[in-house]
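Cross-check.
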Amino acid sequence: MDCNHFAVITAKDNGKSLSDKLEASLQMLIAEVNENQQRGYSVNEKKIAPILLCALLSILVVTTCGCTTSSQSTKLTVFAAASLTDAFNQTAQAFEANNSGVNVTFNYAGSQVLATQIKQGASADVFASADQRNMKTVQDAGLMNNSSITVFAENKLAIIVPTANPANITSLSDLAKSGVKLDIANSSVPVGNYTLQMLATASNNTTYGSDFKNSVLANVVSQETNVNDVVVKVALGQADAGIVYKSDVPAAYQSKVHVITIPDSVNVLAKYYIGVLSGSQNAQMAQNFINYVTSPDGQAILKSYGFIVPPTAQNTTTAAVSSTASQAITTAMT
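Predicted model, tokenized:
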């Protein structure tokens, strides 16, 4: 028997208490001594002493170095509107690269679904909503850190049609043509609510006429619970057109759909809100994530996916940097 035997034993038994490891090692040593005596071999105390010392050192090394090989990490859970999927996935990669040990996980869905889940007790650190209405419902339930809430992105509506464009749709006015199969999100979803607002505004515009909204809605063949489903159905040719956010055509579908701009005169400017949930177990890291989203790097990612950078995002970044600097000065002076 030599030191290697004990190194193997202690490695295999990693996770046991120190006393258990010591007992196992000593029992192993005693068993070998007894076996040698039974065979008539002499037992040299000078040889046993260093082996016993090796046993103890092996245990101490394993115990001192740590009982587990896994490193601690911080899990940050973000509930985010479905339209943020691609942009936020890239944002998380950049944030994790700058914050060792942090693992950002997402729950993407319609903002109204996320708000309901949070109010029903779902655990999360950050909530990013595609409108103020759903953010407010979570606020009213007392589940948001209100001072952390800020507008971090803006968006506009657009029309998408299959690349083949069988209904020959080229403008907003074409959505009112008889026989057009239109897919939109339902009114409980932010993009669905924005769609109704846009159609109402267009109906008050002489270019489209007072009956425009009713004519368009008569062509609706399906209403989805999140905007991504609208994109998929149009890409698959299950509808002649769909109304989505300008940012909502991921790379996988860009060759399958064509985007048609809606005039600013009737379009809606959607505002995205983000904040830390009051029940967050990692409130500071959650705020750090928001600070990154509103930073120049975070905003550049959002812009690359078609989102509009709001002035408030830059103001928030400046305020966050100033706050951090103030905290550092205060800490240094105490």
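Residues 3-65 form one domain. The radius of gyration is 31 Å. Passed to J.P. for a second look.
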